[in-house]
């Protein structure tokens, strides 16, 4: 066997620094009286999002279970039970994700704060990532852009009004022409625009929070009405060095609306010939019981290590990425 196959991909210095970053993150949560929890990695339900694929397992040859793509659903069940502010550090799994910035198994820090809105949660994220990075790297003050401002600044178009042809042409002019996009809808093109063109240009001079995503991209976030009668999602993402590090929401607590969004996701999956995963009825029951007003965020810890050490790829931040697992 090749000698390099069994050795860790990351340098020992990085791995030791990674451990210290986790210690500092945990100390920050302790100082904020946010409690660490553990929830199952395997679930009878799976994420409905058409952009995310779950990995299936069959323990003891029984009914299928799904390796979680995020601990979000069971953590919200804890919140609905009255548990209070909590966080989790855990591996998460997503099928078909591989490359410089992706690995099918990666580490997520996810946490929830009661009575926080988007602004308060952004500030919490800002404090956490600076504490975690410690003396490894300091950052200038963060900036905030709306989703519209971020796209307009990079592409020179108003994403609220641009049609599919404009979006496709904007990407093609920069050499981005996806295959098999015949069934794509407008939001798919907007996702690609943000992920492939806008996001990589953000956060190089200072961390950038992007907020006020369109209502059609709310996922599990509440909506906020604007003076012109339109709505935006109470959602934000954090970018550093062109990396999306975190995705946060003011959490939706309406069980009927959440079920409608899940069913809409399933219809999209059905139309595209994707696997239709079972919905998380336990989460929906928890929402019916009542989710307290809260905000939550998922932070990709391996990417934060990348940023702290200025590493060229995700595997350089991990001991044993998929090719060495």
Question: Overview of this structure, please?
Answer:
With 325 residues, the protein is an alpha+beta fold. The protein has ten helices and twelve strands. It has helices at residues 3-6, 12-31, 72-80, 118-133, 147-155, 164-172, 186-198, 255-272, 281-289, 301-309, and strands at 35-36, 42-43, 55-57, 65-67, 86-93, 105-114, 143-146, 208-214, 223-225, 231-240, 243-250, 294-300. Strands 1, 5, 6, 7, 8, 9, 10, 11 and 12 form a nine-stranded mixed β-sheet that branches. Strands 2-4-3 form a three-stranded antiparallel β-sheet, with no helix packed on it. Strand 10 and strand 11 form a beta hairpin. The longest helix has 20 residues, at 12-31.
Q: List SSEs in N-to-C order.
A: HHEEEEHEEHEHHHEEEEHHEH
Helical residues, percent: 25-40%
Low-confidence stretches: none
Number of alpha- plus pi-helical segments = 10
Average pLDDT across residues? Answer: 94
Spatial shape: globular
Q: State the total count of DSSP E strands.
A: 12
What does the largest sheet look like? Answer: 9 strands, mixed
End-to-end CA span? 14 Å
Gyration radius, to the nearest Å? 20 Å
Strand content: 15-25%
What class would the helix/strand composition place it in?
alpha+beta
């Amino acid at each position: 066997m090749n000698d390099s196959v069994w050795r860790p991909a990351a340098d020992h210095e990085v791995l030791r620094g990674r451990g210290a970053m986790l210690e500092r993150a945990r100390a920050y949560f302790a100082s904020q009286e946010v409690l660490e929890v553990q929830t199952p990695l395997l679930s009878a339900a799976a994420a409905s999002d058409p952009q995310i694929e779950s990995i299936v397992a069959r323990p003891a040859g029984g009914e299928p279970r799904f390796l979680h793509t995020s601990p979000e659903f069971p953590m919200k069940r804890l919140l609905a039970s009255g548990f209070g502010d909590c966080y989790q550090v855990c591996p998460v799994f997503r099928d078909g994700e591989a490359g410089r910035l992706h690995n099918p198994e990666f580490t997520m820090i996810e946490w929830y704060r009661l009575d926080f809105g988007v602004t308060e949660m952004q500030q919490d994220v800002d404090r956490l990532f600076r504490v975690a990075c410690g003396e490894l790297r300091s950052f200038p003050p963060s900036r905030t852009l709306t989703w519209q401002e971020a796209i307009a600044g990079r592409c020179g178009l108003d994403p609220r009004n641009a049609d599919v042809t404009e979006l496709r042409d904007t990407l093609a002019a920069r050499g981005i022409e996806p295959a098999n996009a015949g069934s794509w809808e407008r939001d798919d093109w907007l996702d690609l625009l943000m992920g492939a063109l806008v996001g990589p240009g953000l956060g190089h001079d200072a961390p950038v929070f992007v907020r006020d995503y369109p209502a059609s991209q709310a996922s599990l976030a509440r909506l906020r009405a604007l003076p012109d009668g339109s709505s935006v999602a109470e959602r934000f993402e954090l970018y550093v060095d062109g990396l999306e590090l975190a995705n946060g929401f003011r959490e939706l607590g309406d069980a009927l609306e959440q079920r409608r969004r899940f069913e809409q996701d399933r219809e999209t999956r059905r139309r595209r010939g994707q696997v239709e995963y079972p919905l998380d009825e336990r989460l929906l029951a928890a929402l019916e019981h009542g989710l307290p007003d809260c905000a939550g965020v998922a932070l990709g810890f391996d990417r934060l290590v990348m940023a702290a050490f200025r590493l060229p790829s995700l595997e350089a931040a991990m001991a044993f990425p998929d090719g060495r697992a």
